[in-house]
Design goal:
The protein is built from 4 helices and 12 strands. With 190 residues, it is mainly beta. The strands form 4 sheets. It has a 5-stranded antiparallel beta sheet. Strands 6-7-10 form a 3-stranded antiparallel beta sheet, with no helix packed on it.
Length: 190
């Protein structure tokens, strides 16, 4: 059966798989569908991450998310899932009305729905006003990552078929100056 409810989960999601996580009611009679996918961005496999995968501090392969606002009737017809039944929506911790779906590898008419990631240096007005949370960083609270001296912003969206991901090459980071200290006197020299 296509678009099977509860056929996957974020905990078991693997690279190359997409998960339709949930539907959340938003304004204007629409719902927002949440998709998740572990994206291979072309970087080599992280050795430390592999050998410490049960240590949550090394959990670097978090799924990328994409949220799309849609009309419930149209989405229901295309996905074959009734997203219009108000009784199936439950209030979450934030007070949002959410329907858990957990559909592994959703599709429309035999075409897979995937998450597409596009990095750009052209941020929206909202991105530019929220640099601290919107610009790409080296780790959660790390230094910003730049491309040609400009901030990098990530735009994720759901797409039908094979995604056309775009990852910008990060500017090289200068090595820090090495300061040598005489162990006996504490004198700094270079």
């Amino acid at each position: 059966m296509v678009n099977q409810l509860n056929s996957g989960s974020l905990d078991t999601l693997k690279s190359g798989q997409t998960l339709l996580v949930n539907a959340r009611k938003v304004a204007n009679g629409k719902i927002q569908l949440e998709f998740a996918e572990i994206i291979n961005d072309g970087r080599p496999v992280n050795f430390l991450g592999m050998f410490n995968k049960s240590d949550e501090r090394f959990a670097s392969t978090k799924p990328r998310r994409a949220w799309e606002s849609v009309m419930p009737t149209d989405a229901s017809a295309l996905l074959g899932i009734d997203l219009t039944d108000d009784s199936k929506y439950v209030s979450d911790a934030r007070g949002n009305d959410v329907m858990e779906l957990n559909v592994l590898n959703p599709e429309v008419d035999g075409t897979p729905i995937r998450v597409q990631v596009v990095e750009t240096t052209e941020g929206t007005e909202w991105d530019m006003n929220n640099i601290e949370t919107r610009a790409k960083r080296r780790g959660r609270d790390g230094d910003f990552i730049y491309h040609n001296g400009k901030y990098i912003f990530t735009k994720s969206s759901a797409t039908l078929g094979e995604p056309q991901n775009v990852f910008l090459e990060a500017d090289k980071v200068a090595a820090p100056d090495v300061i040598q200290v005489d162990a006996t006197t504490g004198e700094i020299f270079s």
